[in-house]
Description:
By secondary structure, the chain is of the alpha+beta class. It folds into 5 domains: 11-178, Beta-Lactamase (2-Layer Sandwich); 187-359, Beta-Lactamase, CATH 3.30.450; 384-532, 2-Layer Sandwich (Beta-Lactamase), CATH 3.30.450.40; 552-714, GAF domain (Beta-Lactamase), CATH 3.30.450.40; 789-945, Histidine kinase-like ATPase, C-terminal domain (Heat Shock Protein 90), CATH 3.30.565.10. It has 26 helices and 30 strands. The strands form 6 sheets. The chain has a 6-stranded antiparallel β-sheet, sandwiched between helices. Strand 13 (404-410) and strand 14 (417-423) form a beta hairpin. The protein starts with 10 loop residues before the first helix and ends in a 17-residue tail after the last strand.
Amino acid sequence: MTSAKSPKVSPPLAALVNTIKQLQQQEQIGGLIAPLVSFVQETLGMSFVWLGLYNEASKQLIGQGGTTPVGDHPFLKQKLTLAAGSLLDQVLMNRKPISLPSLKEEPRLGELREAATRLGIQGTAIYPIVRHRQPLGILITGSTTWGDTLRGDDLAHMSLLVSALGPELERLAATKTTKGVPEAKQVAAAAMTSDDPIRHLLQEASRANSFSQRIEALLLAVHQFCQPQRTSLFWRDVAQPLYRRRSYTVGKPQSRESQRQPLAITQQELAGCYTALASGQTVSVSDSQSVVSATAPLRLMQMLNCRALLATPILVGTEVVGFLTFERNDPYPWNDNEKKLLQITAELLALAAPTERLEHLLAQTQHAQSLVSELAQAICDEQDWRRVLHRAGERLAADLGAQWVFLLTYNSLTQAFDVVFQYPAPRGRDRHPPFPPLQKMDWQLLETATTAIALEDYSNELRLYSWKEVLGKLNIQSLLAATTTPGHSLEALLLVGRTEPTLWGKGQQTLVQEVARLLGLISHQWQLQKTNTQQEQVRSAMLAGLRALQRTQNLERLELTGLQQLMNLMQVPLVALVTWQPGQTVGSIVAPPPSHPKFVIRNDIEIPIYEDPLIHSALMASQADVNGNPYAGLIQTTAAELDPRTREWLSGPDIGQILAIALRTDPEYEPSGVLIVADHRDRLWSTLHLEAFITLVNHLAWAHRSTSLIQMLTQGWQTLETLNWYKHRRLEQVYGQLTSFCQQLTQWVQEHPEADPLLRRLGTLLQTQLESLHPLLSHEVWQLDKATHTAGLAVVLKRVMDRIENWKQRKQLWIQVHNQPVLTLNGDLSKLELILYELLLFACQRSPSQGRIDIWCQQIEGIGQGGKTASWLELSITDNGEVEPQLLIKLHQLEHLDWLAPSSLDQPPGRHLKICCHLCQRLGYSLDMYKLEDGRFLSRLLIPLNHGDTGTFELQSSQPRQ
């Protein structure tokens, strides 16, 4: 395989490595300030830095220095008292950093908040400095901008810097303690009592040249004073939670056998005794056969083969670094002097203990730091990250005596962990198979862990149980597991395994955790590159699909083009569309030729869309609310879950995973089809692909609807245009014939003065009607025109009444006009008459025989546009006829109609009423139709008066004739 080449290392990471080197070269704590301030200001762009050391005895943070937005400030050396439960106290106790949008607005910070207010500090990050889970201090970085905190790579770099700061603070603090504290403790111990045994112990300890000689001298001296049968010293193993008997005396030198096989006991085996020792108590057992105390170390007494035991802890801080014991084979009541002398001896040993432990820890720390520094430098210098991983795995395996090293990354699709790197490299295949998904408890365990998790004997472990089979095949018996982002979401894991049970030490856990942090940068970069590649592929496919949809206007070509683009986007062998015409209940299948013969689909059959379970489920899902769940309208299923009726046409034998989604642009609009996507059984759909798929499907749905609507409207427009042309030409023909007839009639009447007066009047009426037709034929050929006529309201109503006289007689209807005012109307009266006629015709058609229709007239005064006084004429028609509720709903929702869906407005009378509503809007009228509380149906037409508009009517003063 070709190795992945990484880009050159970024300047921030190089600055981080340089800063860590500077920290390691300092000899005083004060020397740490300058490198910290330089890195935070110049690399991270933060203007506030403060380092405080934690004093556990006084519960204070002691300022060591830093910088502020105004330069040097007395606050930098100030002491901050930690109140119990305060925010800084929680950061130290929880050992987790926090971010604050504004430091000066945080009420839980007390003195720090006051200083932040004076200095104008807002966006802040607070980092605990921890070493071996012991809080050493706090580092605070801040800015004068609200919400300005570290993110992304800057946050990772800062976390690495804080991790490297812990060991250096521990090193410098330990050096300072070694130089100054033991002498004070010795003086205090010497002044504690003036008894001869104590003075003798001090003299014996002062004469010894080495730590081992001091131990032997003290043990021999205290043994001579108290005369137990044995005096033993148990010392904690630095790398393991184990106490070994380092030395003991019975008044004679140790045997070679005891030196070869020193006695050892674990912390767990000490049980309640360890709790007592950790609290500083001296454990006294006078007779092992009558022990009832929970603190009695029964397991230890069995190992020592004694019946009386006196044990006191050797404490360094709060850590039990060892304990001293007096042992007797017979029951013995220990007195206070023996207890006191043993305690003083333990305190003397505690004074010298840090020196040896510090030397061991420093050597171990330097070794670990050399590995971390070497790895960080390799990340900066190397372009081949696989070589860096190989080097890290090889070094870890050598330093920890491990047989296996794995770097795993979490796969959000499979929920499993892919193997990015394995040491030693596998044989015969490229990579180890993925590790199976973790259980919820193990996931939470890894996410909350701040250091590597140690599994000492995996055969007896329930943690990481999901991997028991995988690790068993590798014969891994003990394991160290560290997340690359401790305390945050799980991204990658570093595993170090041995083929035998192992007691892992804290130093080994810390080393693995620090290496995991650095390797996390590599894995995170790989994930970013992989994501960027996928996003670029999806983006290109999306753009190609959108461009293809925009270029297509034919419906059949649009469907095939959209399916092909979706196939390219999702990289699947089958995409099909089940589509149908509006109002139909049976759909047909449109699909491009499948790329594989085992993904065929039967496109020669018709599908009942409301009976097929898959199609029906997709249609139901399309009505779901996608605001809370963007995938609510998407059906994800498998071939095994399909109904046999669906399997009849979705019949490919290799079809496994299936997606189905309806082409629906809005819940108010009818769907025009259901899209089907199919792939193999092991196909997993990523969030990125699903989001892009839904987006492109939505665009296809809009294009499909728009193209269908354009075709439908185009066909309707062509039909109506043809009909208009035909009727207009026929009307012109009839008009010409009637004009010729009228001229002949007029000429005949003129030539015959004795002609019947009725014939003369009919000729005049015919001439008048022909004159009214002329504007229609000349000005309203292809569009409506606003004409102006004048007539009384009574005349207009009479004309309309005359037109419906036939219906009135046929159904014996009682029609009455009420409150008719004397008005002269000036406007497009011909269109007004047609509207009134359509409303009265609608009422007559619905009214029962011998029914009643009332026409109410009313003049209304009010405030119109611009605040001017306006007048309206209200014409209301009430009847007792039944109206289909759906018709009323659609008439009130004309602006939101789905023109592709079958509707009651497609046929009379709904079609005629719809035209009346549109015509009223053009003329400035207001038309409402609804049912009254008493069951009558009301048609209300509001006509504006005195607006000076050619489409409205004017009120003229008119007096009735005397």
